[in-house]
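About this split. The held-out portion is used to measure sequence recovery: a designer receives only the structure tokens and must propose an amino acid at every position. Recovery is the fraction of positions where the proposal matches the reference. Here is one held-out target exactly as it appears in the evaluation file.
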């Protein structure tokens, strides 16, 4: 998924493109208990273990894409501010580091 793709596309296409992707257990375990998952009204294995997990994966990917896009814009603004002597080089470096980190996290999804 492209980092420049509209967020709606990331969310809508992520489920089908990553049909068998498994997100870390910590995300699922922190989101809902096993009892809550099984009490959703459809205890079918595929829905609980593939559909639900893929949906969480889509949400996670969409959030990381949005974070990346925000950090990218913030960094671009910081470069302009630096050129106009409105911020220091240290502030610019911090914005650049946050941008790189968000980019790396989005690429891992």
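Reference sequence for scoring:
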């Amino acid at each position: 998924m492209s980092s420049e793709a509209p967020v709606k596309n990331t969310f809508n296409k992520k489920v089908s493109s990553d049909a068998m992707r498994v997100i870390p257990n910590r995300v699922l375990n922190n989101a809902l208990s096993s009892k809550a998952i099984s009490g959703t009204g459809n205890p079918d294995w595929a829905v609980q273990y593939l559909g639900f997990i893929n949906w969480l994966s889509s949400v996670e990917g969409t959030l990381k894409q949005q974070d990346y896009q925000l950090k990218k814009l913030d960094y671009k603004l910081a470069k302009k501010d630096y050129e106009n002597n409105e911020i220091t080089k240290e502030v610019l470096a911090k914005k650049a580091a946050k941008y790189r980190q968000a980019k790396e996290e989005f690429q891992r999804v």
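Annotator remark: The chain is about 75% helix and 0% strand.
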